[in-house]
Design goal:
Blueprint (H helix, E strand, L loop, with lengths): L1 E11 L5 H17 L4 E3 L28 H15 L2 E11 L2 E9 L5 E5 L5 H7 L1 E2 L7 E3 L2 E5 L8 H9 L4 E5 L5 H18 L2 E5 L1 E3 L15 E3 L11 E4 L6 E8 H10 L18 H6 L7
Parallel strand pairs: 1-2, 1-11, 2-3, 4-6, 8-9, 9-10
Antiparallel strand pairs: 1-14, 3-4, 4-5, 7-8, 10-12, 12-13
Helix pairs in contact: 1-2
Length: 298
């Protein structure tokens, strides 16, 4: 089984209307369609661009206003997924539930189905700057091209939950991210490589580039997309199927061959998934995930 994935290095800049946002999103998706991509990944917090539209006085909106765009956001990406016959990981969007803000990744299927995965680990930046709340449910998603998971930015830095989604059958993790400097970028990038090696999976990663000069906490972005593989002979030596140019507005695309994952798990140079020592440490497997009240498709 093969799937073709594209990751968007989304360029943040000030806009004046939701339509400008919609046109920019469709531009990337049309570009991905030209390469016959089946999955497209947008970055974390890319919908904060909508805050630059501003209020009646021309002042940028605050984070509390972002959930007000949710219906338009959902309608846009449902339409795009159906129109272009793609699975779209619509980055993340901030929603409000019971008076609390959540950073939520949405998965849009071509048939109109919409799934979501809230970010589980919230950075001090998100708590202190935006009072963001942590999600509670860890999920995996079945698609016609296999089982996937979505872990947002900081989430990928925690190996336990990656073990859990791998044990539940996920072969590909999509990781939307948003980092403002080299330190944050490299934390996410290096741990994405570690997770791919530890679990013999693919990680599709991307981040925001550009700047929102009028939007608090979004004035700096440092990003690069990467399609990351295990480090073994069937794969590129650096564990990179593709990567973008740092901080450029662009799209990167690569094919993921799931059969290679199954091959290296059985007879690779190393077999890190098979060789984990569950006699010495906890196996964060399917049962553990279910025991915590998580949603695991059968």
């Amino acid at each position: 089984m093969k799937l073709r994935v594209s990751a968007v290095q989304y360029h943040l800049h000030s806009i004046r209307s939701f339509q400008e946002f919609a046109d920019q999103c469709e531009h990337y998706i049309r570009n991905a369609q030209e390469y016959d991509a089946e999955f497209v990944l947008f970055p974390e917090f890319f919908t904060t661009q909508l805050l630059s539209i501003g209020d009646a006085d021309g002042k940028a909106l605050t984070i509390e206003a972002l959930p007000g765009f949710t219906d338009q956001y959902l309608e846009l990406f449902k339409r795009l997924a159906a129109q272009y016959n793609m699975h779209i990981i619509g980055g993340t969007h901030v929603i409000e539930r019971e008076g609390r803000l959540y950073n939520v990744a949405f998965l849009f299927f071509p048939d109109g189905t919409v799934e979501e995965q809230a970010k589980l680990h919230i950075t001090p930046f998100e708590i202190e700057g935006w009072n963001m709340a942590a999600g509670e449910d860890l999920k995996v998603f079945d698609t016609e091209k296999g089982r996937i998971a979505i872990l947002t930015c900081y989430d990928i830095e925690f190996p336990e939950i990656v073990r859990m989604v791998k044990a539940a059958g996920a072969d590909v993790i999509f990781c939307p991210s948003c980092t403002d400097d080299r330190h944050g970028f490299h934390r996410v990038r290096y741990t994405s490589h570690a997770r791919a090696i530890e679990n013999q999976i693919y990680v599709v990663l991307t981040g925001t580039v550009g700047s929102l000069p009028t939007v608090d906490l979004m004035r700096a972005n440092f990003g690069q997309a990467a399609i990351i593989t295990p480090n073994d002979i069937p794969f590129p030596p650096k564990g990179l199927a593709a990567e973008g140019e740092l901080n450029n507005d662009m799209l990167v695309t690569a094919d993921l061959d799931l059969s290679l994952l199954y091959e290296v798990r059985e007879k690779g140079s190393v077999t890190t998934w098979r060789d984990r020592r569950t006699d010495l440490y906890t196996d964060w497997g399917t049962n553990a995930l279910r025991g915590a009240g998580r949603d695991v498709p059968q």
